[in-house]
Write a structure and sequence with these properties.
alpha/beta; Rossmann fold; Immunoglobulin-like; eight-stranded parallel sheet; 26 strands; binds alpha-D-glucopyranose
Length: 708
């Protein structure tokens, strides 16, 4: 009999439930509840996994208690939110999505895994795969943006990066795809609110990234806090048992979100903790994070016949199998003891950060800065704020070793005089620092305004209704802009900020998100032209919060938008177009697209078509273009979106160089969720659109026919 079966036979009920119980150590808390000492619980076998404890020594010490001092010696699973880096911090996921580079997405996950496993961590609660189209929701920062196809590529790349080829290796982390699902669709962008959407939208938008994560072998999945149309995901048997385990065949572990099992009482779907525990366990949730609902409720649920011992055993088995796959039974100390993997994480962080920067607007030739520039004013609350550069969910990353914009610019322009002042706080009403700050700009050749949000204004429990600059930053910016001198804006935020006045008046605006440990160097690389910006928006940038949710993949409607025409899908007071479309991102180069071809012009299911396009660099700067391939199914049994992203490709071109970009588009990738909610492929005409963003005005189009 193998060791898992032996343990299952030997375990008491308390020990079985202990393997399903995850508690936070006293090192950090990422949700409601108190800090607590956990050693006596570990000795008694009442805890199977720990959250928020890291550091080789601490990990080995707590593991030794489990292995040497508990009755069965089953090792602990040590877990942490390693979302965008562990000690070296990479750009927040929404920024990383703007790289449109699965290789880099995988590399940063790999580097994060190397650092986290050195600290004894075996599982990370990442990647976060919540498609989001509502920037009022603070967790938009943590995810891969608005597009389900991009989110699916992100899911696969991150899962591969965290888990590597061998989950049992010293530097591999178990990935947890989260939060299943539709968390990004919370009502009015309000955190933890209910989401109410059709089964079709679930299957078209919110489930695909989790299918991709399962296909990539994710070890675990975390259901979302929220309810979908009244069914809390933590107790959603149709989706967890039916779709995930039944249809997809997912055999991994389901870990509840923080306290979520007990919060089924707040949802009003369980009358006591035993019912809450039973609902979650029967829905397939194996581990109860932090709520103690399983510890307190499962024994009673068993007595009351709400669950069976077989159901408890099935969950315990999945948890033990994960621990076995991680190699914890062979060597509980493998993580936290191995020698550091080679590789320069800081250099990787700088590469990822500069590629995440999106040049939103740039008038004339204000950028890149002249190498001879002699006097710059660096103004704003985020100018010299290294702690803000790491963004939310920065794991063990200490902001104080991040490179601030001031430090980065000083290092890049050692001969330049750089005067800096914050002028205002990020979010206060005090104007007293503005005159002195404006004075510094008066004599400078150019001002770099460093504006935006602080770390606490996005991430979990950080929904906002007003998406303009917080505090008095607008007052500061307007005083500086009123000087009439060149102004470049660095916009640091966890979401698109709605500041049309700023885009109108500033000479250039860069979305610098939260770029991580190398923020200042990455921004300096772009401002000085050492790096030609390549970032592309993975999220549509609204013109006004009243447009939200605004995204490129809208359905046509019976009265498609016609600017200026009443009785079409439009607003009286604002164009329907966003401030910047999905895929937007300027470069110091200028690329011309031509000769879009599709061959053959008709194809059958199971076949492919070859799509090609000529791209030419018509500028004086070598650069890299990103091309997006969209399709539109013109007539189908269900109204299909105006644009659906099916591929993206990059091409680097020197000055004056041109080159072909080619795609092979499998016809079967044109299937969609049919009337019966099953995938269907229907004959008919398809438009192919290719461009550098989803801006309809700049797409090249051709057509082909899918024949039966
Ligand atoms: C938090 C988050 C979840 C995270 C977990 C552990 O509340 O919702 O994403 O993984 O708790 O920190």
């Amino acid at each position: 009999m193998n060791r898992i079966n032996k343990w299952l036979v030997a375990m008491t009920l308390e020990e079985k439930v202990g393997q399903l119980n995850m508690l936070a150590s006293s090192q950090a808390v990422t949700g409601p509840g108190n800090r607590r000492a956990v050693e006596e619980d570990i000795r008694a076998g009442r805890i199977g996994s720990l959250l928020n404890l890291w550091g080789g020594n601490q990990a080995r010490a707590v593991q030794r208690i489990a292995v040497d001092e508990s009755r069965l010696g089953i090792p602990l699973l040590l877990t942490l939110d390693v979302i965008h880096g562990h000690r070296t911090i990479f750009p927040v996921p929404l920024a990383e999505a703007c790289l449109f580079d699965p290789d880099l997405w995988e590399k940063t996950a790999r580097a994060a895994a190397a650092e986290a496993t050195l600290d004894g961590i075996a599982l990370t609660f990442a990647p976060m795969l919540d498609v989001a189209r509502d920037p009022r929701w603070g967790r938009i920062v943590e995810g891969p943006g608005e597009d389900p196809w991009v989110a699916s590529q992100f899911a696969a790349a991150k899962t591969r990066g965290f888990q590597g080829d061998d989950l049992g290796a010293a530097h591999s982390l178990a990935a947890v795809a989260k939060h299943l699902c539709a968390y990004g669709a919370v009502t009015a962008g309000r955190e933890y609110a209910s989401a109410d959407l059709s089964d079709r939208t679930l299957r078209e938008i919110y489930l695909p990234p989790f299918s991709a994560a399962v296909a990539a072998g994710t070890a675990a999945i975390m259901p979302a806090f929220i309810d979908i149309a009244g069914v809390p995901m933590t107790a959603n048997a149709p989706l967890l048992q039916g779709w995930l385990r039944g249809q997809l065949g997912f055999e991994g572990v389901l870990i509840s979100d923080y306290n979520a099992v007990a919060e089924l009482l707040n949802h009003g779907v369980a009358k006591d903790i035993a019912e809450a525990a039973a609902l979650a366990l029967k829905a397939g949730v194996d581990i109860d994070m932090m709520s103690n609902a399983y510890t307190q409720g499962l024994p009673e649920a068993l007595e009351r016949g709400l669950v069976t011992m077989g159901e408890i055993d099935a969950s315990v088995r999945r948890v033990l199998e994960l621990k076995e796959r991680l190699g914890l039974f062979d060597d509980p100390y493998r993580r936290g003891s191995a020698k550091p993997e080679t590789g320069d994480a800081r250099a990787l962080a700088r590469e990822a950060a500069r590629r995440a920067i999106v040049l939103l607007s740039c008038k004339g030739d204000i950028l890149p800065l002249s190498p001879d520039i002699g006097h710059v004013a660096l103004i704003g609350p985020l100018a010299a704020a290294p702690g803000e550069m790491v963004g939310p969910w920065s794991s063990a990353g200490l902001g104080d070793d991040a490179v601030s914009f001031l430090d980065g610019l000083k290092a890049a322009l050692p001969e330049c005089r750089i005067d800096s002042a914050s002028g205002v706080d990020v979010d206060s009403q005090s104007l007293q620092g503005i005159p002195a700050a404006v004075e510094l700009c008066r004599n400078a050749e150019l001002t770099v305004l460093c504006l935006g949000e602080d770390v606490s204004m996005s991430g979990e429990a950080a929904s906002r209704t007003d998406l303009d600059l917080p505090g008095c930053q607008r007052t500061l910016a307007e005083k500086v802009l009123d000087l009439g001198k060149p102004v470049v804006v660095l916009l640091s935020s966890g979401r698109p900020l709605v500041s049309p006045w700023l885009f109108e008046r500033a000479d250039a605006v860069l979305a610098t998100w939260f770029l991580g440990s190398e923020a200042g160097n990455a921004v300096a690389d772009v401002l000085t032209g050492k790096f030609n910006p390549t970032g592309k928006l993975a999220i549509t940038w609204p013109r006004n919060v009243g447009q939200v949710p605004v995204f490129y993949g809208q359905r046509p409607t019976g009265r498609p938008t016609k600017a200026g025409e009443r009785y079409t899908s439009s607003y009286l007071d604002l164009p329907v177009t966003p401030q910047f479309p999905f895929g937007h991102g300027l470069s110091y180069s200028r690329f011309t697209l031509s000769d879009l071809r599709c061959s053959p012009s008709c194809a059958k299911p199971g076949e492919s078509v070859e799509i090609s396009l000529m791209v030419r660099n018509d500028s004086l700067a070598d650069g890299e273009a990103t091309l997006f391939l969209f399709v539109r199914d013109l007539v189908a049994s269900v109204a299909r979106p105006l644009l659906e992203l099916k591929a993206f490709r990059k091409i680097a071109l020197s000055v004056g160089e041109q080159g072909w970009v080619n795609w092979t588009l499998p016809i079967d990738s044109l299937n969609f969720v049919g009337l019966d909610l099953r995938p269907v492929l229907e004959p008919g005409q398809f438009e192919i659109h290719v461009g550098q963003s989803a801006d309809p005005g700049e797409l090249l189009t051709t057509i082909f026919e899918l024949i039966p």
